[in-house]
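Exercise: predict the fold of this chain.
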Amino acid sequence: MSRTAIALSALLAAAVPLADAVADSVTRTFMARPGTRTTFVYAASSGEMATVIIGNPFGGAQQQVDAAVLAALSGSYIGPQVRFTNTPSPQAPAGYEIVVLLDGPPGMAAKTLCTDRARAAPVPSPGSTTVVIAFCAGTTTMSAAAGRTSKIASPDDPAFRTLLLRTMMMVIPTRDQEDEVKR
């Protein structure tokens, strides 16, 4: 393992504290197309990233859930500062979005978040809280990851932030795959 990878691992460990409530969390990457990081850097070049949030596993105000998701995502990207927002300015490059699905239907393909969001209706689960996050370039899914943990009661719970952070960190790689091949 390179010194850079070790330093990055230490940084991630410090940035994402392990909370007891998420000791059982599972995060997995579905896919990351070549050029994902470069495309994300371009898409976020205005300092903003358009974000669509689907679902509310907590009941209550959607605005509270949206605020918690956007705050967590804004702390998840390693690179130039990016503000994730559901109201991007006209300066943000069009056609690029991060889509966050909370408590989605079991077995739904992550690419559905970029191609057919109408099928991505939330399905509350009594025993767990799930999240699927996709980075979309138009209808192309550049990358996606999913996370799950035991049921979280509130968007203000630190376990919710940790679940989002862990999952989002899997969506945008720290470098493009082709960079690895060149080394």
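Check your answer against the key: Residues 19-175 form one domain.
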